[in-house]
Amino acid sequence: MNSGRTEGFSDGVFAVAITLLVLNLHAPEGDLKAGLQHMWPAYLAYVVSFLNIGIMWLNHHAMFRHVVRVDRKLQLLNLVLLMAVVVVPFPTDLVGQQLAHNLHGGDTKTVALVYGLVMIAMALGFTSVWWYVVLRPGVLDERLDKAQLRQANLRFQVGGVGYLIGTALAPWQPLAALILFGLLSLYYAFEHLPQPAVPAE
């Protein structure tokens, strides 16, 4: 099976998830200026989640450009990834509200931890798809440069460690953890996936 249908379905899920983020943003009641200033953590959470979903979509698209065959196991792993992606708007809403109302409260620490766990789930989902296409014979374009593949593997592992650190930090410094998650999305924005070492005929 070619990757067209899997890519199309995935694109739709990414689009829905990234659109749902903005539905969590509401106009403040009362004084507009004060309300907007008070709700800045919600806007920060929106930006961080938008970047994480959007840049993951870019890398997902780049990866599937080199997938020559999709089997059922790859589809299932991709579904697990999409399940994590589409749930991101929920903890984004929670963490934005809690940071705005009680930066160091117990509930804020809890929702920041939940947000971090969702980020880890999303990263693990993408990593599982990546490793499957790399290790499964006949799935990935065999013309891809092997040295570049090894470098990409290392970069993905480094990013994964960053998500673990951010999640461990979340219960004590939720705002710092959120900023770290945003920086990690920018780290992946500069990810260059391997290109064919041999040009197509």
TrEMBL record:
<keyword id="KW-0633">Potassium transport</keyword>
<keyword id="KW-0472">Membrane</keyword>
<feature type="transmembrane region" description="Helical">
    <location>
        <begin position="12"/>
        <end position="28"/>
    </location>
</feature>
<feature type="transmembrane region" description="Helical">
    <location>
        <begin position="40"/>
        <end position="62"/>
    </location>
</feature>
<keyword id="KW-1133">Transmembrane helix</keyword>
<keyword id="KW-0812">Transmembrane</keyword>
<feature type="transmembrane region" description="Helical">
    <location>
        <begin position="112"/>
        <end position="135"/>
    </location>
</feature>
<keyword id="KW-0406">Ion transport</keyword>
<keyword id="KW-0631">Potassium channel</keyword>
<keyword id="KW-0407">Ion channel</keyword>
<feature type="transmembrane region" description="Helical">
    <location>
        <begin position="74"/>
        <end position="92"/>
    </location>
</feature>
<dbReference type="Pfam" id="PF06736">
    <property type="entry name" value="TMEM175"/>
</dbReference>
<comment type="similarity">
    <text>Belongs to the TMEM175 family.</text>
</comment>
<dbReference type="InterPro" id="IPR010617">
    <property type="entry name" value="TMEM175-like"/>
</dbReference>
<dbReference type="GO" id="GO:0016020">
    <property type="term" value="C:membrane"/>
</dbReference>
<dbReference type="GO" id="GO:0005267">
    <property type="term" value="F:potassium channel activity"/>
</dbReference>
<protein>
    <submittedName>
        <fullName>DUF1211 domain-containing protein</fullName>
    </submittedName>
</protein>
<keyword id="KW-0813">Transport</keyword>
<keyword id="KW-0630">Potassium</keyword>
<dbReference type="GO" id="GO:0015252">
    <property type="term" value="F:proton channel activity"/>
</dbReference>
<feature type="transmembrane region" description="Helical">
    <location>
        <begin position="156"/>
        <end position="189"/>
    </location>
</feature>
